[in-house]
Specification:
Largest sheet of chain A: 2 strands, antiparallel
Largest interface: A-B, 47 and 49 residues
Keywords (chain A): Amino-acid transport, Cell membrane, Membrane, Transmembrane, Transmembrane helix, Transport
Largest sheet of chain B: 6 strands, mixed
Strand order of the largest sheet of chain A: 1-4
Radius of gyration of chain A: 19 Å
CATH architecture of the largest domain in chain B: Orthogonal Bundle
Structural class of chain B: alpha/beta
Strand order of the largest sheet of chain B: 10-11-12-7-13-14
InterPro entries (chain A): ABC_transp_permease, BCAA_transport_permease
Strand content of chain A: under 5%
GO biological process, one term (chain A): amino acid transport
Distance between the termini of chain A: 54 Å
Shape of chain A: globular
Strand content of chain B: 5-15%
Distance between the termini of chain B: 77 Å
Oligomer: heterodimer
Membrane topology (chain A): Multi-pass membrane protein
Shape of chain B: elongated
Radius of gyration of chain B: 29 Å
Order of helices and strands of chain A: HHHHEEEHHHHEHHH
Structural class of chain A: mainly alpha
Family (chain A): Belongs to the binding-protein-dependent transport system permease family. LivHM subfamily.
Helix content of chain A: over 70%
Helix content of chain B: 55-70%
Chain lengths: ~290, ~650
């Protein structure tokens, strides 16, 4: 029982990371119906840039805004190079392939800059576990949960309350109408990509002290976060938190009771099943197709 | 053309077969062998990506399943190649069917992610199921033996070459048959495919199964060719490489697949050779610069747009001189090439050359040869079945279609007499097109029942309903844009084919006969609507009015008892409308019942036997055209109520 509680707690922390990345998918999908297939790489770059910054002697907490800034720029670059031309050409295949290509390039560059080996990210909080309900919890895990929730809430708050956020929501509802109302929808889409990569980079520095940091850390995370986005529905904020927790717990328990080698399998299988049975996700609404 | 083509093909095959003898270098023999194996995968991948238009990131996984099927069978059972190849094809095809299940529900980015997840799972399973696959250690095997003779590198090369040729012929024949047209139709318009009796579900599964089978065959050959397989070969990068090869070579061509395979096999070798890479990148930069300058001069491109590829390729060339070793940057180069191809070479190298030289594809020449076929007595003759004129053909009772709170159709009754032309009119948004969608099974009504020719439509799929005799056209034209006019009509004739995969692959008499008949009939139908001159033209290039006529021809190909025309005269000029009237009259004379939605009142009044009027989802009037025209409620619906 104690072990199970422990697994659930680590699962929740992991799940929140998935939720943050999935949140990034939602942001871009909302404005432009596109996704960054290199979202995992944005997270990886965030973590590695953070690691270098800490290496230069910058404090962990001061480093976070820097990483966020870097993430935002990286996201804007992805949008300009990979997504905007494809949207202009109305080519779905185009943006899928170009964001994949950019992801591969980022990964390869990271491999060449930071090396192929996984690196240890120094933990900003004490590494001694706290005791709660008979289970050991790392302070870092608490930080991950709190940080992830804060991140998502602040973006949501921004979208709902500020006039810029209203532009984002308007673009989501009807891109053409928003354009006619004088909203620079191109800028909104760029902004959503910047925000999306920013959250991913932020998630990167949050998770990095708990796992190892390296060029390959992003790919599978990105894929599993997509599973979360699908399970939760691409339009439901509540859904991804629930989906993230489900997946995180499924993963830690699989890793413990079956084999760590199989820990990625439940998420991916869940993705296949949800898409085969209820493509709009557990919390999403089904769109009516028009003929 | 035909004998010339045969001679060229013969020469190519001879050159391919003679290559190992002429070269004698095992390294090059192995290189060409790998190209051929990749080409087999790409033939299959092209079916899914090029024809049905789905993005698959799972083909490296399928390739791996093929390789491991062969590897494990050899390792555990010492199986011969006679067992391993069929087993690899069958097992991988089964996995392809599995992969197609989610593909039935989702498309685009969702499908890309699903197939990516599938590929990742396969890689994990291969890694973890050590009891079967030896895990990360990999499996070592030897070249197979044939008839008790151990094959050497050269002899195995010939086996691969034979397989390549077999796959080439197989894929080519399948894709030019009704099956290939069905695949292509899915991409053009899934809704229209279903309404032409081509089940989107079924043909997506077919496409994935055939595609996977080829990947399996290639995988098994690859295992023998490399003599060592390990899980990491079948990763994400491999998948992206396959996709890159398809789009770079050119979709929907076999030459493109061969070319793409050659490029992705040669490119890593090229990157290993720094000198060579520098030369090639400088040449590339020059070509891009010249091409952009020409485009700019001809006014085909703006300065900004033209500058990006030039700067990119010059940067690449500069980079090649800066770096000491390219091998580590291999993936970045692949990434850059992918970006370049996606934006500047969308039709691939083959498509680019074809466009530049104005070459016509097979489809257009097929149309020419169809024109030579003897015209049948009457292309429409099969339609109808002029039994019991005046009996009720279609009966809709209390049909309710609700979207959220909106009742698009509110308890509408409709009764259509056999052999009549029934008008359905009403202001915009009154529910006419919704009615069409209910009748063709695209929408499932919230309540109410529809029966056609005595059988209820409830619970039947669109394609099933189409095959039972309801054909339709669409308000916003839903043609298969990349297919020729003739091919569009042939998709409508899909139901007339009984041939299976074997008939098609071996060109058995049944397939040849059916294909011949269908082509003649399709051309006849084009003649019926006056499009015979445009048979070889791609549908998306036709003028709007002609596209509407083509939709009618395609719908007639289904041999419908009931034809639903959704605003056929919209956007037509006055002389075109006259022609349309004549065509609809002729359709009726052949015993086909017609439901006509139209805003042109003169068309409705001159053609229809009965007219029903919808307003806000309710039927407000029904009767003879003249009576309806005089009905006060109708006038009110169209012109607004009188101030009381």
């Amino acid at each position: 029982m104690q072990i199970l509680t422990q697994l659930v707690f680590s699962g929740i922390a992991l799940g929140m990371i998935y939720a943050v990345i999935a949140f990034g998918y939602q942001l871009t999908f909302a404005t432009s119906d596109t996704l960054n297939f290199g979202q995992g790489e944005a997270l990886m770059l965030g973590a590695l840039v953070g690691l270098s910054a800490v290496g230069f002697g910058i404090n962990y907490w001061l480093m976070i805004p820097l990483v966020c800034l870097f993430g935002a720029i990286q996201g804007a670059v992805v949008e300009r190079i990979g997504v905007r031309p494809a949207i202009k050409m109305k080519s779905e295949f185009g943006w899928i392939m170009s964001t994949i290509a950019l992801g591969i390039i980022f990964k390869n560059v990271a491999e060449n800059v930071w090396g192929r080996d996984d690196l240890k990210f120094p933990s900003p909080l004490p590494e001694a576990p706290m005791h709660f309900l008979g289970a050991n919890i790392l302070p870092m895990e608490v930080l991950v949960v709190v940080g992830a929730l804060l991140m998502m809430l602040s973006v949501e708050f921004f979208n709902r309350r500020s006039i810029y956020g209203k532009a984002v929501v308007a673009t989501f509802n009807d891109r053409d109408a928003a354009k006619l109302m004088g909203i620079n929808t191109g800028l909104v889409i760029t902004f959503s990509y910047a925000l999306s990569s920013l959250t991913a980079a932020f998630a990167g520095v949050l998770i990095a002290p708990l796992t190892l940091t390296g060029a390959t850390m992003g790919s599978v995370l990105g894929l599993k976060a997509f599973a979360v986005a699908i399970i939760g529905g691409l339009t439901s904020g509540m859904g991804i938190v629930v989906g993230g927790v489900i997946l995180g717990v499924a993963e830690t328990t699989t890793g413990f009771y079956i084999s760590t080698g199989y820990k990625d399998v439940p998420g991916l299988v869940l993705l296949l099943i949800v898409l085969a049975l209820k493509p709009a996700g557990l919390f999403g609404k089904t769109a009516i197709k028009k003929v | 053309m035909k004998p010339k083509f045969l001679i060229a093909a013969g020469l190519a095959i001879a050159a391919l077969a003679a290559f190992p003898l002429a070269s004698g270098n095992p390294y090059y023999i192995h290189l060409v062998e790998t190209i051929m194996i990749y080409a087999i995968v790409l033939f299959g991948l092209d079916i899914v990506v090029g024809y049905t238009g789905q993005v698959s990131l799972g083909h490296a996984g399928l390739f791996g399943i093929g390789a491991y099927t062969a590897g494990v069978l050899v390792l555990k059972l010492g199986a011969s190649i006679w067992l391993t190849l069929p087993a690899a094809i069958a097992l991988t095809a089964a996995f392809g069917a599995l992969l197609a299940l989610p593909a039935l529900r989702v498309t685009g980015p969702y499908l890309a992610m699903v197939t990516l997840a599938f590929g990742t799972i396969i890689q994990i399973l291969i890694n973890e199921m050590s009891f079967l696959t030896e895990g990360p250690m990999g499996i070592t095997l030897t070249k197979p033996s044939l008839f008790g003779h151990q094959l050497d590198e050269t002899e195995f090369y010939w086996v691969v070459a034979a397989m390549l040729l077999a796959s080439l012929v197989f894929v080519h024949r399948v894709l030019r048959s009704h099956l290939g047209r069905a695949f292509e139709a899915l991409r053009g318009s899934p809704v229209a495919s279903d309404c032409m009796g081509v089940s989107v579900y079924r043909y997506k599964v077919y496409a994935f199964v055939i595609s996977a089978g080829l990947a399996g065959l290639a995988g098994a050959l690859y295992a023998y060719s490399e003599q060592y397989i390990s899980p990491n070969t079948y990763n994400f990068e491999q998948t992206v490489l396959f996709l890159l090869a398809i789009i770079m070579g050119g979709r929907k061509t076999r030459t493109g697949a061969l070319l793409g395979a050659a490029i992705i096999v040669m490119l890593p070798k090229l990157l290993d050779d720094l000198e060579m890479f520098r030369i090639v990148s400088v040449l590339l930069a020059l070509i891009v610069a010249v091409a952009s300058a020409v485009a700019l001069k001809r006014g085909k491109s703006s300065l900004q747009a033209a500058l990006i590829p030039v700067v990119g390729s010059v940067a690449l060339a500069g980079l090649s001189f800066k770096l000491q070793t390219m091998t580590d940057w291999r993936l970045s180069v692949f990434g850059l090439i992918t970006l370049f191809v996606v934006y500047y070479l969308q039709d691939g190298i083959v498509g680019f050359v074809r466009n530049a030289l104005n070459l016509r594809g097979h489809a257009a020449s097929d149309a020419d040869s169809a024109a030579q076929l003897p015209a049948g007595a009457d292309a429409l003759s099969k339609a109808g079945g002029a039994t019991s004129q005046g009996a009720t053909l279609l009966e809709a009772s209390k049909v309710l279609m609700q979207f959220g709170g909106l009742k698009a159709l509110n308890e509408v009754d409709l009764s259509i007499k056999r052999g009549s032309i029934h008008g359905l009119i009403g202001p915009n948004g009154s529910g006419k097109s919704t009615m069409m969608n209910v009748l063709t099974g695209i929408y499932v009504p919230t309540a109410g029942a529809v029966s056609f020719a005595g059988a209820a439509l409830a619970g039947r799929t669109s394609s099933d309903i189409a095959l039972s005799g309801i054909a339709r056209t669409f308000q916003n034209v839903q043609l298969f844009g990349e297919m020729t006019a003739l091919q569009n009509v042939l998709v409508g004739l899909h139901h007339s084919f009984r041939s299976n995969l074997l008939d098609v692959a071996l060109h058995l008499p049944r397939y040849l006969r059916e294909n011949h008949q269908a082509s003649a009939r399709a051309f006849g139908l084009l003649r019926f609507v006056g499009l015979e001159q445009l048979a070889g033209e791609e549908a998306r290039n036709l003028p709007y009015g002609k596209q509407r006529l083509l939709e009618i021809a395609r719908a007639l190909a289904l041999d419908p008892q009931l034809l639903l025309l959704d605003e056929p005269a919209a956007g037509l000029t006055a002389p075109d409308i006259k022609e349309l009237l004549a065509i609809i009259q002729k359709i009726r004379e052949h015993g086909v019942t017609v439901i006509l939605i139209e805003h042109h009142m003169d068309v409705v009044m001159s053609l229809c036997d009965t007219v029903s009027v919808l307003d806000f989802g309710q039927k407000i009037a029904e009767g003879l055209p003249a009576a309806v025209q005089a009905d006060e409620k109708v006038i009110e619906a169209y012109l607004g109520g009188q101030a009381a």
